[in-house]
Specification:
This protein is mostly helical and 115 residues long. 84% of the residues lie in helices and 0% in strands. Among the domains are: 29-73, no CATH class; 75-108. The chain has helices at 2-31, 33-55, 66-70, 76-114. Helix 1 crosses helix 4. The protein is elongated, with a radius of gyration of 23 Å.
C-alpha cells in the first residue's frame, strides 16, 4: 500500500513537471518570431486561395467546394462573421496562453514551498 502511494506521488510530480514544460514550450512558440511569421504566411496563402477561387481567377485549379466557387463575392454579413470568428479564435488562444502562464506560476509557487 505504501509503495502504491509513493508511485502515485511520483506520477503526480511528473504530471506537474510536464505541465510546466508544456507551458514553457507553448509560450516560447507563441513568442518566437519565426513561428509567428510562418503562421501569418500560411493564413495569407489560405485567404489568397479562397479569394482567387471566389473570383474565378484560378481557372478552376484550386480544390474548393462548389459553394465557395459559386459565391463569387462574399456578402458583408459573411465577411463580418468571418472576421469576428477569427478575432474570437485569437482571443481564445491568448486566454489559453494566459491560463498556462497562471498555472505555471502556481506550479512554481507550489514547488518553492515543497522544496
Amino acid at each position: 500500500m505504501n509503495h502504491m502511494h509513493q508511485d502515485m506521488d511520483d506520477i503526480q510530480g511528473n504530471l506537474q513537471r510536464s505541465k510546466k514544460i508544456i507551458a514553457q514550450i507553448a509560450r516560447g512558440a507563441a513568442s518566437d518570431r519565426c513561428v509567428q511569421i510562418l503562421c501569418c504566411v500560411i493564413v495569407v496563402a489560405i485567404i489568397l486561395c479562397v479569394i482567387l477561387a471566389m473570383t474565378g481567377k484560378d481557372q478552376g485549379r484550386t480544390n474548393m467546394p462548389d459553394e465557395v466557387r459559386n459565391n463569387r463575392l462574399m456578402s458583408r454579413s459573411t465577411e463580418s462573421r468571418t472576421l469576428s470568428g477569427i478575432s474570437y479564435g485569437i482571443r481564445g488562444f491568448m486566454s489559453k496562453l494566459a491560463q498556462l502562464d497562471r498555472d505555471d506560476k502556481q506550479l512554481d509557487g507550489a514547488g518553492d514551498s515543497e522544496g
